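dude i think i finally got it to work??
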Amino acid sequence: MHMQFSEEAESHYFFSQPHQPFFVLAFINAIVTMLIFMLTYKGVMHLGIPASNFHSYSMLYLLFTPAFVAFLFTTFPRFTSTEPIAKRRYMQVFSLYYIGSVLFVLGSIVSPILSHIGIFLLFGAHTIVFSILREIYKKSALSDNQDVFWILTAMGFGLFSHFIFILGSLFYAPMIGLATETGVYLYLFLLTFSVAQRMVPFFSHCMTQKHPMLLRQIFILLVAHVILEGIYTNSSFIADLALAYIIGKEIIRWQLPFPNPNPLLWILHLALYWIPVALIFGAMANLTTLIAGTNFLFLDIHVLILGFVFTILIGFGTRVTLGHSGNMMQAGMWEKVLFNWTQLVVVMRIFVSLAAAFGWNFMILFDISATAWMLMFILWAVRFFAVLINGKKLS
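look at this
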């Protein structure tokens, strides 16, 4: 298996812009890994690694990481007024992600040795991504680079969480809990919010000056969340309530034009509004667990990741795909269905956790939730893969 694609393959339209191959890989991973996790959770399949580890790792590093690499490799040079990333460099990263994803998924089914090789390749790709973004940050001559600094900081924590996950999978399993908490809050959430608080008001033509200390305050509270979880499980509700207040107050201050007739905007606004809602949901679930021992099946993480990160990923992914393919920057019936379907995915996952908390048989709801997730990415692929791969013009 070659680490680099042939020159003929690399000259294909599919590889002409960095977001195209990374989005396709990330979305295929989303479908395949969820199908495997669902079958494993139901006892139909048996993995060589714990199913929970497979699910956490695949979501963090096989779906969301390459998806946000797709976005950042396209926009980060623009944020910093530097030259675009050379094809040779992003193709090197894509090659590692592609081969690492295949080996991790295959190895999880066949042999843990293969899955660990895949993890090391994916970690190597993640390291190169951080290095490329750090080089771009250092080259930038812009005086106001706070947003870029926090994006890079979040990516650094992503690399750290990836490393801790490897240590946990090889030597000390409890470290995987720290890796997951760090990966969700100090990596995915911080990264996504750092991008969103810059781009969504800009897309919405909102001129309200953002609070200059907002990202620093959020970072401190996210660190507090991870520390509290490390000290005593479910005690992070204190930090989450503070985060909900600060972020909710700031989003209201921006005066986003919501509800908005443009689906390409309201999906992004909706994702932001999910943040305080998700944090309050999570805080209440964790407090209830502390008091009564109720099991909410990780409601806090899932509502935040699905409500905010997943929703905004679909919104940003659709915008980038349309805007960089010569298609009209407008949403038709397909896009409206996709955007509404994201909310069905979020709501169904909430129902799964609530059913578990009430002691009901939640497996049917779990099947529906997982199927809704896979169908979301399948529908998105049907609509946009031809655009990404061949530059198709949508009617």
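The domain at 7-389 is CATH 1.20.210.10 (Cytochrome C Oxidase; Chain A).
im so relieved honestly
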